[in-house]
Design a protein that fits this description.
291 residues, transmembrane helix, ABC_transporter_permease, MetI-like_sf, Raffinose/stachyose/melibiose transport system permease protein, MetI-like
Length: 291
């Protein structure tokens, strides 16, 4: 009886949140999963089609290419973005509060721009006759000029660079919070023992930054696996599918009239995010336990 009385207020408090979550998250996923096994075109008619949409998805080379592009994009962005964030945070942690605040605000400014607007800005920088190519020409480095978004060998990296530029400030802010929360007595003890800057970083600071690393990698990885705006605006998935991501493929099929097939791809993306992001997060959490 007492346990029931203790549980009732908790259940009552959680019920509105659970109801909202169920209506706006669980129900759309369940409905989408159901419709992915039909032949619906987005209208009221939906005949059961079994696993035909999934069989077709796994038989299409474009689906495999989109999965590879999405994973490769995620690897590039997660490594470079968090690497830059770690370096910036390490430098800022040694600066005064005023300098730290000013530079942190500057680094976070790109995140205030919408991804679509950022893509349009960078599309100008990537034009063959302006932006980066013009700067390279001024420096006498014409050999490095490229058609950045038109060359399959550089297009995906060029799109990833926009993502890195936009969200490196987030990674910096999270790592900086981790640096500022490090126990100073432990760092001073390492310095007294004769540990140099590099040794202090790898033996003391880096292990203690494990929670910050987990948050940064998890957030950036999930965002990259469902990336959509950058390839849509910058390349439209080209050239020759080199920047086609799963989210963009889903968009093209759903709004191209093949609604059920697009939903099947969305379910595949959901599983991919759950497996990859969940697995990486689990490994990083376990790493925290051994520190």
């Amino acid at each position: 009886m007492n346990s029931t009385r203790r549980f009732s207020p908790v259940a009552t408090a959680l019920l509105p949140a659970l109801a909202i979550y169920g209506v706006f998250t669980i129900y759309p996923i369940v409905q989408g999963l159901f419709l992915s096994f039909t032949d619906t075109k987005g209208g009221p008619k939906a005949d059961f089609a079994g696993t035909a949409n999934y069989e077709y998805a796994f038989s299409q080379p474009l689906t495999g290419q989109a999965v590879v592009n999405t994973l490769f994009y995620a690897v590039i962005v997660v490594i470079v973005q968090n690497g830059l964030g770690l370096v910036f945070a390490r430098i800022l942690s040694k600066k005064s509060d005023r300098v730290r605040t000013t530079i942190s605000m500057i680094l976070l400014c790109p995140a205030l721009i919408s991804p679509v607007m950022a893509s349009f800005i960078w599309s100008y920088l990537y034009r063959p006759d302006t932006g980066f190519n013009a700067v390279l020409e001024m420096l006498g480095l014409e050999a490095l000029q490229r058609v950045w978004l038109g060359d399959p060998s550089t297009a995906l990296g060029a799109v990833a660079a926009v993502n890195i530029w936009m969200f490196a400030g987030y990674s910096t802010a999270i790592f900086l919070a981790g640096f500022l929360s490090l126990p100073q007595d432990l760092l001073e003890a390492a310095e007294i023992d004769g540990a140099g800057p590099w040794r202090r970083f790898f033996r003391v600071e880096w292990p203690l930054l494990a929670p910050s690393l987990t948050v940064n990698v998890s957030l950036s990885l999930i965002g990259c696996l469902k990336v959509f705006e950058f390839p849509l605006v910058l390349t439209g998935g080209g050239p020759v599918g080199s920047t086609q991501t799963l989210s963009l493929l889903i968009y093209n099929n759903i709004f191209g009239g093949d609604f059920a097939y697009g939903l099947a791809l969305a379910m595949i993306l959901l599983v991919l995010i759950a497996v990859v992001a969940g697995g990486v997060n689990t490994l990083l959490r376990r790493r925290e336990l051994y520190i």
